[in-house]
Amino acid sequence: MILSEKKISKTMDFLVNKMGWDSKMIASRPSVIFYNLENRIIPRCSTVHFLFSRELIKKKEVKLSTVLVPTEKYFLEKFVTKYEKQVPKLYDFYQGKIGIEEL
């Protein structure tokens, strides 16, 4: 599969500028660029970013590969189900059914 320059740019922009991940970290796991931005990268990163903002997890303890590479089941267990008591609507947020203001 060949990636377009536009897709690479959009993905890098999101990961570096919106999420604050270091470009060197992304370069060490270039396979993450192949993931679908709208269906995998944005939902997972937005969920983790929310957890950072509530100080439920610390950014330095979470690697990019831990967020984007694992299976859906693993991601949900580690970053959604684990925090359902503190944030009951986190799964709905992850699925894009509600906005961050509704959490």
Summarize the topology.
Elements: H1 5-18, H2 23-28, H3 37-53, H4 64-68, H5 72-79, H6 90-94
Helix pairs in contact: 1-3
Q: Would you give an account of this structure?
A:
InterPro entries: MTERF, MTERF_sf. It holds the Pfam family mTERF. Keywords: Transcription, Transcription regulation, Transcription termination, Transit peptide. This is Mitochondrial transcription termination factor family protein. Belongs to the mTERF family. The protein is mainly alpha-helical and 103 residues long. It has one domain. It is built from six helices and no strands. Helix 1 (5-18) packs parallel to helix 3 (37-53). The termini are far apart. The mean pLDDT is 93.
Question: What does this entry show, briefly?
Answer:
The chain is mostly helical. The chain contains six helices and no strands.
